[in-house]
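INTERNAL AUDIT FORM
Audit reference: QA-55
Scope: verify that the stored structure record matches its stored sequence.
Auditor: D.O.
Record contents follow.
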Amino acid sequence: MKKKLFYLPSKTKTLYHPKAFGFGGGFFTFKMKDIIFTLVVILSIGLTTQAQLVQEATDLGYTVVTENIYNTIKFEGILFTDIKATNGDIDQMANLFPVEDNGNTRPTTGLQLAQPNTVTIEEPGAITGDVYRDFKYHNGLEVTFFGENQGDDLEVIDLKSDNITINGVTLQIGDPITDLTSINYIIKTGTINNQFINIVKEGEYAVSLSLDLDSNNNIVKIHYFEIP
């Protein structure tokens, strides 16, 4: 005969089960406010940890932005999220960045000398077995995709561009960093007294988007890369 659970009258819900704790039975008392309090504590710990990570990154000189702002980043007018979503597929990249069909737009071994063209696509790891695919465009955009194994979806590990859009503000090489009015940024000083801004997405600190500056705080380089 199936054993039943019995509720005992109480201001709090008390549950009795005959086989509780593996012995002769036991009582469990549940209060809704206790459950809510526990959930609030867990959530608070998570938020506190996240806030601490953001503060630590900020203290180290990183410019931390939210995921929503980070996802507005564009290169050559194309969302970075869309570039990453191609996984290095040649046809999908061609849809994002149309090219003239007048030369080499297919992969080479990386040892062949590429002729000047709208885009050059190389797979420098074809000989060594590494899975790399480089897209180099005449406008200065360079995107490198990498995968650990053949057949893997490739991920962007390096990108250089002459322009960038962040939260609706577009900047080009030569522009003063003061034009970046859409986010609060931190200018960091490197080991050789070089000035730059390191932009990272909240919660992801293994990759960085660097805006290098000259002595007048004008942008001289735009570079996204994985931090070794």
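Auditor finding: record pair retrieved intact. The chain has a mean pLDDT of 78.
Action required: none
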